[in-house]
UniProtKB/TrEMBL annotation:
GO terms for biological process: phospholipid biosynthetic process. SUPFAM superfamilies: FAD/NAD(P)-binding domain. Transmembrane segments: none annotated. This is Digeranylgeranylglycerophospholipid reductase catalytic domain-containing protein. Signal peptide: none annotated. The keyword Electron transport does not apply. GO terms for molecular function: oxidoreductase activity. Residues 191-247 form the Digeranylgeranylglycerophospholipid reductase catalytic domain. Keywords: FAD, Flavoprotein, Lipid biosynthesis, Lipid metabolism, Oxidoreductase, Phospholipid biosynthesis, Phospholipid metabolism. InterPro entries: Dggglyphlred_Halo, FAD/NAD-bd_sf, Geranylgeranyl_reductase, GGR_cat.
């Protein structure tokens, strides 16, 4: 006899585990299918830099004991300059964080099946009614949630997401010791999260140093695999770019990689299409929900999980109605609460990666002279605030960008001019 649950979730990452946690606390029968082996979890999926902010930890009840280091500033570097701003944050031990979410969800009543790879949705009369996993095993549910990240085996087969390779960002990171976080030639990165814009190191992306205490840090880089934003004349792999940085930056002169502490991952930097259909929702990196501008994915993923839990609760309360019309509540919540400015932030991201290195130095000079309110408005995608960062010599850059990225421009402008 096939098992039946109120909700089945594929994937035990932050989004999937948080969705299960929320629903279990509402007394729903929830099952999470996770590909990895429980004893090793999350060895294969321990991929996040895991920088986050107090707002996420407070909103989702995340305990301090999963934090490697509490930070008090954010630093942005260009090739020859930097900007620093006071901003409390936290660098999580990502594995501990994921295990906490699973443990807490289980204590609330969620069931987990590890070694269970979701492979296909089960549909009847056009509605999703369950999940096939591990080849021929099946489980039924009133609501199915895909939280598997870019793999998206359920969402792709249902046509809910269309993740394009040209929008895929790949990343690599090492945890390192012996890092000189307060080098005299650079900004002081003590208790800081630093992002560096430098095409020589991360073409079409950025690199980072997240201080994790003492002389240790998470060090890595990521970039979009799209030749419009860089020309890899050296023919380097992403590992090659990281080694180039480690070999040439004096902050790593005496640094060593910590054995077994390498992380790799990918995410898509693109606007979501649909987010749900009959009996089904996609959350977290499956959508994708990651903030395109600064790569913050944990808080966005957790918010998408909560929006999905709210939607499932509504659809299953007072009778079951999981029609596409009712499930579309999730789409509304996602665009309102998870990423209300997704289009314009995506436009800002692509324009940022399109700019040459020398433009990054001027950007640092400009933002160092701005007041905090204007900077906040820039980060929130205000066209008026962004205009203050533009100069006459940017006109040719903007013209070329509009020509090369017409669709991205249209998506971004819809946030500002909805009738376009």
């Amino acid at each position: 006899m096939t098992d039946h649950f109120d909700v089945v979730i594929a994937g035990a990452g932050p989004a999937g585990a948080q969705c299960a946690r929320d629903l279990a606390e509402r007394d729903y029968d929830v099952l999470v299918l996770e590909t990895e082996n429980e004893d090793d979890f999350p060895r294969q999926s321990n991929k996040s830099t895991a920088g986050t902010f107090p707002s996420m930890m407070g909103a989702f009840g995340v305990p301090d004991d999963v934090v490697m280091n509490f930070t008090d500033s954010v630093v942005i570097e260009s090739p020859n300059d930097h900007f620093a701003q006071t901003q409390p944050g936290a660098v999580l031990e990502f594995g501990d964080f994921k295990r906490f979410l699973v443990r807490d969800g289980r204590e609330a009543g969620a069931e987990y099946r590890f070694d269970s790879r979701a492979t296909a949705p089960i549909t009847e009369n056009g509605s999703v009614v369950g999940v096939r996993y591990n080849g021929d095993e099946e489980v039924r549910a009133d609501v199915v949630v895909d939280a598997t990240g870019p793999a998206a085996p359920l969402a792709k087969q249902l046509g809910v997401v269309d993740l394009e390779r040209e929008n895929q960002a790949i990343g690599i990171e090492w945890e390192m010791e012996g890092v000189e976080v307060d080098h005299p030639d650079y900004a002081d990165l003590t208790d800081a999260m630093m992002l560096r814009l430098d095409h020589d190191l991360a073409p079409g992306g950025y690199s980072w140093i997240f201080h994790t205490g003492g002389d240790t840090a998470k060090v890595g880089l990521c970039y979009i695999q799209n030749e419009k934003y860089h020309s890899n004349k050296e023919g380097l792999s992403i590992d090659g770019f990281l080694e180039k940085w480690l070999d040439n930056d004096p902050r790593f002169a005496d640094a060593e990689k910590i054995a077994g502490k390498q992380h790799r991952g990918s995410a898509h930097i693109q606007p979501p299409g649909s987010l749900s259909t009959d009996g089904f929702m996609a959350i977290g990196d499956t959508v994708p929900s990651i903030d395109p501008l600064w790569g913050e994915g944990i808080h966005k993923g957790m918010k998408s999980a909560r929006a999905a839990a709210v939607t499932a609760d509504r659809c299953l309360t007072g009778g079951t109605d999981t029609s596409a019309e009712e499930m579309a509540i999730y789409d509304e919540l996602w665009h309102r609460d998870v990423a209300p400015d997704a289009g314009v932030r995506l436009l800002m991201t692509h324009l940022l990666y399109y700019a040459p290195n020398e433009r990054y130095d001027r950007l640092m000079r400009d933002i160092n002279t701005m007041d905090l309110d204007t900077l906040a408005n820039v980060n929130n995608g205000s066209p008026r605030a962004i205009a203050k960062l533009l100069h006459r010599e940017d006109l040719s850059l903007l013209r070329d960008f509009v020509r090369d990225d017409t669709e991205i421009v249209k998506v971004g402008l819809k946030d500002v001019i909805p009738f376009l």
